[in-house]
Write a structure and sequence with these properties.
By secondary structure, the protein is mainly alpha-helical. The chain has 16 helices and four strands. Strands 1-2-4-3 form a four-stranded mixed sheet, sandwiched between helices. A hairpin with a 5-residue loop joins strand 3 and strand 4.
Length: 377
């Protein structure tokens, strides 16, 4: 694509010029956890069998016909402002073929990029009505990032495995094996959302708009009642608060979800936007697509391992602190275990007198979040 704006007639879209990234590789914005989770998924026993079977089985043509017949296709004649955003996002990330985009009637704010052979972008009316122009631009860039990274293939398989599990029950792996693959796919997809959020920022080039969009997805269209700094403080409190019981509950709460929690996404994106890596990209220093064939899998693994090591060491989560203590051979570890889970967040706490009563009834468990994903991506 020599110039993505030739399709729109706009020299600058919409009112200010944005930096373009010719030949950009998806490695530029992919979160290290995204790449490592995908590599781990591919190594999961049975994944190749399921992937090959479903690649030939899934009715992708039927899926395309469904959106064509029961949604509104974005074009110069329909949702023209979204069409301009889509072409602009493809221009900025140098995606040669603009994927078809549909608006689907659904009050739930959501968006997705699916498709095996070619990606399709779908946004709901709930999302279109919730976000302003710059917030929506970040979401469109988010989905184009999914397309450039090739995420649509695995997202499509995840959709079919979770919603059409009965139809694939004949695959000789057993339901437990299939659920293991679904769990692996969800873990990867949650990480891939962090990558796509970065792509959305590269397209919109407006951190405040990205933050506002995530806040609205979490709290609705009451922007005058919300504050970005206070929203980010929630992420800090979520990570650092509680004891080991809370750490376990966090894991249990996130397992059934296909998307990370919104405050966590906002904090991760802000951290990346303030990093030297982001500034280098904006200055034009980033990996090129034509260099992808020369990249080393070992280097990707090393980068992911370094990321996780840094994350564990800097994390304020009680469970991550325990991991650090174990690695460092903390002398008071045994004593803290004997004092109970609460000891991990309050080392100075003295053992209580009398028999332990344990947590109050109903306070030690929280239901898993089985609501539909609300992520704008």
């Amino acid at each position: 694509m020599s110039d993505g704006h030739e399709h729109t007639g706009h020299e600058h879209v919409p009112s200010r010029q944005r930096r373009r990234f010719p030949g950009i590789s998806s490695r530029t914005y992919e979160h290290p956890a995204d790449r490592s989770a995908l590599v781990a998924l591919r190594k999961l026993s049975g994944f190749d069998t399921v992937f090959k079977a479903l690649s030939g089985l899934l009715p992708e043509r039927s899926l395309r016909l469904l959106f064509l017949s029961d949604s509104v296709r974005v074009s110069d004649q329909q949702f023209a402002h979204l069409n301009v955003m889509l072409r602009d996002a493809c221009y900025i990330l140098d995606l040669e073929k603009v994927p078809p985009m549909y608006v689907n009637q659904d009050p739930q704010p959501n968006a997705m990029c699916i498709g095996l052979d070619e990606p399709i972008i779908v946004v709901t009316t709930g999302l279109v009505e919730l976000l302003d122009e710059e917030e929506m631009r970040a979401v469109v860039g988010h989905e184009v990032g999914h397309a450039l990274s090739g995420h649509s293939v695995y997202r499509t398989i995840l959709l079919f495995l979770t919603s059409l599990a009965v139809r694939v029950a004949w695959i000789p792996l057993g339901n437990l094996a299939i659920m293991a693959i679904v769990t692996g796919l969800r873990e990867w997809f949650r990480k891939s959302e962090l990558s796509a959020d970065r792509a959305g920022l590269l397209v919109g080039q407006d951190l405040q708009a990205s933050m506002r969009g995530l806040m609205k997805i979490a709290g609705g269209n009451h922007l005058h009642e919300m504050n970005v700094d206070a929203f980010l403080e929630q992420a800090e409190e979520y990570e650092a608060g509680g004891d080991l019981r809370d750490s376990v509950l966090k894991i249990l709460n996130v397992l059934p979800r296909s998307h990370p929690f919104t405050t966590v996404r906002a904090a991760e994106l802000k951290k990346w936007a303030e990093s030297r890596d982001y500034q280098r990209i904006m200055d034009g220093h980033y990996p090129r697509r034509d260099e992808d064939k020369d990249t080393s899998v070992r280097d990707s693994w090393r980068e992911s391992a370094n990321h996780y090591t840094t994350h564990v060491k800097s994390s304020k989560d009680p469970l991550m602190k325990l991991v650090t203590d174990l690695a460092g051979g903390a002398g008071d570890l045994g004593d803290r275990v004997r004092r109970g889970f609460g000891g991990f967040t309050n080392p100075s706490q003295k053992p209580s007198q009398g028999p332990e009563t344990g947590p109050e009834t109903g306070s030690s468990e929280a239901p898993g979040d089985d609501r539909p994903p609300r992520d704008g991506g």
